[in-house]
Design brief:
Elements (H helix, E strand, L loop, with lengths): L21 H6 L2 E8 L2 E8 L2 H11 L15 H7 L3 E5 L4 H7 L3 H6 L10 E3 L10 H4 L2 H4 E3 L9 E9 L3 H11 L5 E9 L1
Parallel strand pairs: 2-7, 3-6, 6-7
Antiparallel strand pairs: 1-2, 4-5
């Protein structure tokens, strides 16, 4: 078998069902940090270290679709059990970038959980939160909207994103979804800065 990250050949990856070698596996620094934002429980799986940043770059910017299964690999079964009755709502990314790469990276990474996905959040204009200063990031509440929100009424919602930096995007998403009469809201992010 070949590692999807470094392409190293190994006979078996006994610690992983999804083809990632032990060296790469160790470089994904697990933090499994639990905290609250706007009164909502959030779990961050990894530290946003250099290895994670380069892995995410390969997936997003280099369009390496095969990496989609790597991010949730070690947590897949636990997360499936924990959130079995939740519906995913992905933080939207730049639509132009999604079109270029042919997929939405957040959606593809979290599809690994096998949960239903509702595409209700969208950006009013094209921007990258990562290109904004800390102060400018607070403006996201003017740039993020919700549509077809009635499909969330009475559901358990799991808001998912790739990286949490200041938390402004998640705050905005939480507040938009709170207005939908969702039954429960929780958040899960791949990495936290």
């Amino acid at each position: 078998m070949q590692c999807k990250v470094c392409f190293k050949e190994e006979k078996a990856f006994s610690f992983s069902k999804r083809f990632i070698c032990q060296e790469c596996f160790k470089q994904l620094e697990v933090i499994y940090k639990k905290f609250k934002l706007e009164g909502i429980n959030i779990v961050a799986l990894y530290s946003y270290n250099d290895f994670f940043r380069s892995l995410l770059y390969k997936f997003k910017a280099c369009h390496d679709y095969e990496l989609k299964s790597v991010f949730l690999d070690r947590f897949r079964q636990e997360l499936k059990l924990k959130y079995w009755n939740y519906t995913l709502v992905c933080i939207p990314s730049n639509e132009t970038e999604d079109e270029k790469r042919g997929f939405n990276h957040v959606e593809e990474a979290f599809k690994e959980l096998g949960l239903p996905i509702k595409k209700v959040l969208y950006k009013n204009k094209s921007f990258k939160q990562s290109d904004r200063s800390k102060e400018e990031r607070k403006l996201v509440k003017e740039d993020l909207s919700i549509r077809n929100s009635e499909c969330l009424t009475g559901r358990n919602i799991l808001i998912v994103d790739d990286v949490m930096t200041t938390g402004e995007t998640l705050k905005c998403a939480i507040n938009l979804i709170k207005k939908t009469n969702a039954k429960k809201i929780k958040c899960l992010v791949l990495a936290k800065k």
